[in-house]
């Protein structure tokens, strides 16, 4: 349905390069996670994609830029970082206003209000809304035009656990219908269960764009737990093949740098018996930290 | 463009300030024109009484045109709210064509400000009828009414332009209140003081010609009748007439809007 292609996005604030020659693709039918440390340029990238910020590069949605779309909210739904509501305009009126510009019916307005669970406060003023309620109103606005593409900047911000689960199911469902869902988040565990694809950036530059599994595997952080009564023979053999060995857990040895197949081969060739061979995938979090470790701008001070 | 107009129309109708601004303008006009009507009594008539009734005293040059300041806030809020509450990003994701967003704001501010000012004129006519104050000829009634309305509209548009340029509602309100009153007042006094101290204080030389290009002051000629300004003529100040004054103010507002659009079309939302 909607392929998002970002080409050469760039933006400077003064002498600071917030986004630098960033190109990536978001495929329909999948949730694409947008990851990067604080200040790495995620929100700026999203604003550039919607032509809200003046910068370099272009983003096309099925070949057309955001500005070229007629009734854009029916193509691309966006939730941005700052909550853009007038504090005294009733929630329903806010949505009616957006709907008026995009030829969306009032019936649909009430539908999205119900969908995000704001019926009871639809006639309330956002000034009195909690963080999560404001976020729900923003999500309602993004969904208003039933768009085939969603750009969401930290949508789970302020949502309670039920809300986060609801949002995850909703986004997965929408992607399952063939839509493109591009969502930034800090919550890596959340991303690990939500995203199929990733765009990872650091200091405004692209670090990775591809399937989550590939990103995790390519980090080289996966390990294999080996249990063998002939560790005295096998150990040096593995090390000679470039592996790193750490004792534990229990009577197992944790091997990194070789995958299970290579370890099995080595055991066979050196005549060592294998009692157990367990592959442990790296977590998305580990892979992310490894990828962005050198790029993180605002690293916390050392505890020691 | 129709989409932008629809957006802007719902925007205006769903914000409380629109209602209190119109309420204050009409309420003030009603209270004051009836008060003046009641005090003026049957013997009043002619050009001046009606002008005073419509402008609540501003036509004498002694007072500012109060309703313009109130209606002008609508112009400021039109863009000011966008920046004050980050609404501009929601607006531009709903209507990405920035020129359309700005054009819709200008059109609706013109329409709503004009309607509100005309309603104020009607209130003055009502008061004149009730208190049987004699009206001047229809030509003059029309001139005062349109002058007052056009001034209020241009005033409101200047507020919209200030907010677009500064991207700051508070600063724009301050500019709208201070530029016509204090800033122009200071410039005028300084020019006159220099001129009065010169060799030829009653001549038309020096910088006095500048005074008639003060935009709000000049625009005021559209509704000013028996003016305090007449006293300045001994200093060689020859103001524009209503048409010339209106053109000066119109040009000023057009320039402000041009600067505003130039910036709005280019910078970050
Ligand atoms: N309006 C602005 N003026 C100046 N600098 C800005 C502005 N907006 C962003 N920046 C800078 O650009 C960089 C990228 O910011 P951005 O908000 O895009 O990061 P982010 O990845 O969204 O961060 P976070 O995870 O904290 O939301 C930061 O260094 C920030 O300081
Ligand atoms: Mg951000």
From TrEMBL, chain B:
Domain of life where this protein originates: Bacteria
Transmembrane helix in keyword set: yes
Keyword tags: Membrane, Transmembrane, Transmembrane helix
Residues passing through the membrane, by range: 20-40, 52-78, 99-130, 142-165, 172-194, 243-265
Protein name (Swiss-Prot/TrEMBL): ABC transporter permease
């Amino acid at each position: 349905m909607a392929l998002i292609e970002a080409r050469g996005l760039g933006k400077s604030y003064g002498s600071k390069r917030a986004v630098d020659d960033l190109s990536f693709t978001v495929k329909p039918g999948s949730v694409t996670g947008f990851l990067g440390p604080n200040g790495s340029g995620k929100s700026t990238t999203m604003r550039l994609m919607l032509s809200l910020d003046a910068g370099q590069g272009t983003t096309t949605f099925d070949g057309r830029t955001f500005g070229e779309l007629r009734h854009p909210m029916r193509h691309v739904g966006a939730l941005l970082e700052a909550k853009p509501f007038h504090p005294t305009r009733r929630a329903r009126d806010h949505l009616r206003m957006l709907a008026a510009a995009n030829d969306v019916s009032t019936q649909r307005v009430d539908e999205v209000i119900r969908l995000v669970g704001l019926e009871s406060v639809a006639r309330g003023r956002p000034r009195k809304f909690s963080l999560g309620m404001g976020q729900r109103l923003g999500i309602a606005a993004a969904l208003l035009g039933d768009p085939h593409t969603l750009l969401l900047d930290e949508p789970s911000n302020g949502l309670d656990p039920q809300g986060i689960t609801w949002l995850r199911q909703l986004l997965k469902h929408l992607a399952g219908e063939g839509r493109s869902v591009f969502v930034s988040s800090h919550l890596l565990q959340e991303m690990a269960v939500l995203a199929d694809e990733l765009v990872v950036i650091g200091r405004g530059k692209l670090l990775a764009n591809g399937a989550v599994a590939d990103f995790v595997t390519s980090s080289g952080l996966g390990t294999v737990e080996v249990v063998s009564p002939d560790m005295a023979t096998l150990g040096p053999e593995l090390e000679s093949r470039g592996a790193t060995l750490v004792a534990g857990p229990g009577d197992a040895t944790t091997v990194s740098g070789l995958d299970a197949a290579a370890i099995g081969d080595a055991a066979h060739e050196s005549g060592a018996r294998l009692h157990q061979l367990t592959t442990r995938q790296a977590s998305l979090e580990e892979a992310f930290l490894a990828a962005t470790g050198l790029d993180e701008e605002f690293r916390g001070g050392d505890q020691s | 463009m129709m989409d932008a107009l629809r957006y802007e129309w719902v925007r205006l109708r769903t914000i409380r300030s629109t209602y209190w601004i119109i309420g204050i303008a009409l309420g003030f006009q009603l209270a004051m024109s009836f008060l003046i009507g009641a005090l003026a009594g049957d013997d009043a008539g002619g050009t001046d009484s009606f002008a005073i009734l419509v402008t609540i005293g501003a036509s004498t040059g002694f007072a500012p045109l109060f309703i313009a300041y109130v209606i002008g806030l609508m112009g400021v809020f039109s863009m000011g709210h966008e920046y004050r509450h980050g609404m501009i990003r929601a607006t531009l994701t709903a209507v990405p064509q920035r020129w359309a967003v700005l054009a819709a704001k200008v059109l609706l501010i013109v329409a709503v400000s004009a309607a509100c000012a005309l309603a104020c004129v009607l209130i003055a006519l009502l008061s004149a009828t009730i208190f049987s104050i004699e009206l001047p000829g229809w030509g003059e009634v029309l001139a005062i009414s349109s002058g007052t309305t056009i001034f209020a509209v241009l005033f409101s548009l200047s507020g919209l332009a200030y907010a677009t340029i500064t991207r700051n509602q508070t600063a724009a309100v301050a500019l709208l209140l201070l530029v016509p009153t204090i800033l122009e007042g200071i410039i005028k006094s300084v020019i006159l003081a220099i001129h009065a101290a010169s060799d030829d204080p009653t001549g038309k030389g020096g910088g006095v010609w500048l005074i008639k290009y003060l935009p709000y002051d000049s625009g005021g000629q559209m509704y000013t009748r028996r003016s305090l300004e007449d006293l300045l003529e001994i200093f060689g100040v020859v103001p524009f007439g209503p048409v010339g004054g209106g053109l000066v103010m119109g040009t000023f507002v057009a320039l402000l809007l041009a600067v505003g659009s130039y910036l709005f079309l280019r910078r970050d939302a």
